[in-house]
Amino acid sequence: MARTVADVMTRDPITVQPDAPLKDAIQILADKRISGLPVVDQSGKLVGVISETDLMWRESGVTPPAYIMLLDSVIYLENPARYDRDLHKALGQSVGEVMSRDPVTISPDKTLGEAARILHERSVHRLPVIDDQHRIVGILTRGDVVRAMADAE
């Protein structure tokens, strides 16, 4: 019988709310030695994820989009909206300002194989596990999948 996400996931993961100060989320990530946190609203519904990748903007800075001038007009070579979003992340002070919205998720009844495929194909490091009401019930990381593979051997 194939193992499911529920068999392997970490139950009741640490979460933060969008209005939490960014410094609190950074401290949790550092203290717990984890790379990301689900972000939930007051009812426990998943609204995003904050990860190390989201926080790199604070240290690395933001580069304005490349452009060329043509007859007194500015032509952007990249999407300037992306620059605005990246700048907002770099300057954000709350979790909600910096988090990634619409994270890739999975339900607890999916097989571990399906989860591994999503982790690989979508190049994500973690999958929030949600129930039918979109509430977070667990989290599955690449490390969880590898440990499950080792246990099966």
Helix % is: 25-40%
Q: Quickly name the level 1 CATH class.
A: Alpha Beta
The rounded Rg comes to 18 Å
Mean pLDDT: 85
Distance between the termini: 15 Å
Q: How many domains comprise the coordinates?
A: 1
What's the total number of strands? 8
**What fraction of the residues are assigned to beta strands by DSSP?**
15-25%
Label the CATH architecture: Roll
Q: Write the CATH homologous superfamily.
A: CBS-domain
Largest sheet: 3 strands, antiparallel
Question: How many DSSP H or I helices?
Answer: 7
- Given helix and strand content, the structural type is alpha+beta
Global outline: globular
Order of helices and strands: HEHEEHEEHHEHEEH
Low-confidence stretches: none
Task: Tell me what you see in this structure.
This protein is α+β, with helices and mostly antiparallel strands. The protein has one domain (5-152): Roll (CBS-domain), CATH 3.10.580. 40% of the residues lie in helices and 22% in strands. The chain contains seven helices and eight strands; from the N terminus they run αβαββαββααβαββα. The strands form three sheets. Strands 1-8-7 form a three-stranded antiparallel β-sheet. A three-stranded antiparallel β-sheet has the order 2-3-6. Strand 4 and strand 5 form a beta hairpin. The chain is globular, with a radius of gyration of 18 Å. The mean pLDDT is 85.
